Each structure stands twice: as C-alpha cells, then as structure tokens.
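Memo subject: From amino acid sequence to discrete backbone structure tokens
Action wanted: Derive the backbone structure tokens from the amino acid sequence.
How to read it: Take the token row as a discrete description of the fold.
Attached in line: The record itself begins immediately under this heading.
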Amino acid sequence: MQIKGIHHVSAMTANARLNVDFYTKVLGMRLIKKTVNQDDTSMYHLFYGDRVGNPGTELTFFEIPNAAANHNGNRSISEIQLRVPDDASIDFWIERLNAHDVVHSDVVDIVGRKTLPFQDPEGQRLAFVSDETNKGIKGGEPWEKSPISASQFIRGLGPVKLTVPKAEVTGMVLADILGFTKVGTRPAEQEGQPEIEIYSVGEGGTGAEVHLEERTDLPPERLGRGGVHHVAFRVEDKEELMEWVEKMKALRIPTSGFVERYYFKSLYFREPNGILFELATDGPGFATDEDEAHLGESLALPPFLEPKRQTIEATIKPLDTGGER
C-alpha cells in the first residue's frame, strides 16, 4: 500500500471554451478527455495532460457556468505547480506568458527549484517548476501536436500547496495514514506565519510533494471559478485501492467507499481541515473508449452513462474540440 505521488488535481471553471483555449493553445497541454461530471451530468469535466494523460500529468476542470469568482482563503488547495523540463524552460515560459498577457510574478527559488508563479484567466493560482534538479518521479511524455516544443512541454503536476489553519492535523494524515514523509520546510510567504512544511511520498521529487502552509490570519475559502476542488494521489490498482477502503474503515474515517470512474477507480475522504483528498488508481487510463490519436475530440461517456447520451447532449452546451459526431 504505497502511494506513488500526485495523480491529478481537479479545479473549477465557469467557461469551458475559455478554459480549453488557455490550457491547449497557450499552455500547450493536450485535452485528453472531454466528458461530464459523473455526479452532475449537466456540467463538463475536462482533462488535460501529457501525450496520453499519464497518471501524475492530469489537470482537470469542472465547468459551472456563471460560477462566482473563488474567494481565496484557508482550508484550500492554494497552488498547483506544473513541471517543465529545466531552468531554460522557465525562461521560455516567461516570454510566452508575456506574449499572451498572462499575469505572472517574478521567478522565485523554492527549495533549489526555479519557480514561476502565474494565473490563468479566471485567477487559478499556478506555477511552473523546473525539473532541472529533479531526482524523483519521471515526468510525462510530450505531445507531438502541441504548439509547445518537447523541450519546454509541461511534463506533469508538481508540488501541490495546501493552506490550512492547523497544519499539525493535516500533517498527521499525510504522514501517519497516507505514508508521506516530512522532508523539509520552506520560508513562509506571509510575515509572522510558520514555515511551509514539505511532505514527500514514493520515489519523491517534484511529482510527489505536498507543501503544507499554516495560516492563522485567513477566513475560509469560498470555492468558485479559479479555485481547486480536490487533489488525488496515485495508487497502483484496484486491488490496492480496496485495501485502502478497508484501512479507512478500520480507522473509522468517513469515506465515499469505492467509486468507479471508468478511467480510474477512486476513494474520497476529507482530512480534518476540510480539504478533499482522493486516492485514484493508475489505470485503466484514457484510451479505453477512444483511439489514442483522437483523445478529447468528442464527448466521451463511460458505459454507465452512454444510455443517457441523447439527454446529456441536449442539456450540455456544445463545445467544439475538433471531433464532434
């Protein structure tokens, strides 16, 4: 029962068209799946990643049209880092963000890694992180049709930052239940607050870290567009996931129980500060119902939603991504 790293992060958008344009045309990620929220089929669920959406490369978005802007605050997933190959890539991305009028900050050094904070058009807090010194989990595979060359292509998810009022209790869940190890700290971003704790799991490196920020000066986040819904961690397969289901039962931790997501299997629970964690299997992957060459082009529905396709397509706003039926 070894968690392998970050699996995916799911965030919120109010505008699927704007979202697709930014993440595919500006950032050059591949739209690997255009589907619906399985718990509310009236909204899109969009998945971006590397060439085939390998685990650890997936950034996903739920679309809620007209959603209010996120009110940043405590009890939140407050930054998503995106891995790029090396320090030279950071210089490339500064120029590209400037060319597309993308809001960004200056490059900062975080535990020896060049890091470039920026925001998407809805205020989503992101950062590029250089894999120049990475010795942990390998990055994903470049997509040959991306507008970004292989030497600068986003290789996956880097460290995810959690902002909480009591870091100790979230740290206990990460370490004592999920098997993370505290490997260091980084300076606080706000004067007078504790240092940010760094937890790592599995092979370690940029694809396997959670950065835990304690803030005692913030109100709770009000989730909206530009906010993050949950973070998922990688487990090997269904057999191992079922062991986690049983472990959570034994610990009397409330969970969703086993959930079939078709592209992976999942288990959800909230840690004591209220952040939603998911454990998700590495497979079967996103090419199970679409040809690898045409991922993300058409509306994909898992088999249990296929009988409702006509109703779903009549309800959801059309989103042309190059392969509509």
